[in-house]
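In the design runs reported in the main text, the only information available to the sequence generator was the tokenized backbone. The following block is the verbatim input for one such run; it is reproduced so that readers can re-run the procedure and compare outputs position by position.
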């Protein structure tokens, strides 16, 4: 299935443009409800401010996260960005990967 990153979710809810976002959802459902299954909803990405900076830590953040988790589609939730961390840590550090791959190569028959 082809996924579509739904930046309207983040931008319109951050700016509290709720009526416009409701209209987008309503129009999408009227056109083809299956499109909603393709959306990847997110509250922040590496090019934007953290979710805490955009939505705070109170009811707004909780409400948007609840919407993201319950709307059709794929919720993309980065807990480090929700906590307000600026650096993004992806996976295992590179030196550990190199060390593991060498040790695996030595064990190979």
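Verbatim output:
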């Amino acid at each position: 299935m082809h996924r579509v990153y739904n930046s309207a979710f983040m931008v319109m809810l951050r700016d509290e443009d709720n009526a416009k976002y409701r209209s987008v959802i309503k129009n999408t459902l009227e056109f083809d409800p299956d499109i909603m299954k393709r959306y990847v909803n997110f509250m922040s990405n590496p090019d934007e401010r953290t979710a805490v900076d955009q939505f705070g830590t109170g009811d707004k953040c909780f409400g948007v996260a609840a919407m993201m988790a319950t709307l059709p589609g794929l919720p993309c939730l980065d807990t480090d960005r929700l906590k307000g961390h600026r650096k993004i840590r992806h996976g295992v550090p590179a030196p550990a990967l190199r060390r593991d791959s060498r040790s695996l190569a030595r064990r190979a028959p």
